[in-house]
Amino acid sequence: MKALFYYWITSNLFSLVYGLSKLIELFWHDSTGSMEQLKSTVDQPLTNSPLSKMLCNVYPGLHYFFFTKFGVAENPPLLGYLQSLLQLSSTILPSQAAKTVSDVFEQWNDGMESGILSSEDIGYLKKSIHKKKTTILPTVQDKCISLHESFGLLCRCDDEHLKKEFKNLNNVDFLCFGDLNHEEKKSFGIRFLSYFRISESLCFLSNKETLSEEVSQHTRTHTSTTISH
Length: 229
What we know:
Elements: E1 3-9, E2 16-22, H1 34-41, H2 63-69, H3 81-89, H4 94-114, H5 119-129, E3 137-138, E4 144-145, E5 153-157, H6 160-166, E6 172-174, H7 182-198, E7 202-205, H8 208-221
Parallel strand pairs: 5-6, 5-7
Antiparallel strand pairs: 1-2, 3-4
Helix pairs in contact: 1-3, 3-4
InterPro entries: Auxin_embryo_med (IPR052957)
């Protein structure tokens, strides 16, 4: 398998990062912005990070060379975003990462629709997001959680009044995907359906009755069920 030797300079001019990577692991840039966010928050070499595999920061003028001569991919592997989000969640506030998380989920959605993500890939994502340590989902309470049952009930609410009324309940968190503009709000309902394909542990709330019923059920059974309208 072909490999490429490369190096780059960190913000500390006396620190060089270099290595030998398989071409399949390298990519040109990241359209979600997760790598740039990660780059702006760390000041040490990340030789095992997806950030160290992004070539546009290393050789900004050589896109044609790497893309046509070596066949380097434009974007990172879709499953690789999981590691990026994990690193982001440990370095910046959840509210700062919310828009990036939304963009990554949209990339996963596109991957599922196009078939780039196989059923095994989707199963891997689903299993990973259910692990207690995979705290990549930002909430309006400004903390990151996973879909592990120990975190309680995770909801997506389209009613701001309901969100304010119930956001302080114990074991109930509201998903935060950043500030959406008008067009994003229109398309979010469609995009959100794809998230259910990753997990059935998300609750979509549109009215008080839905929330009350789901919270009551969660209190009795300590499990989450999918509710959609």
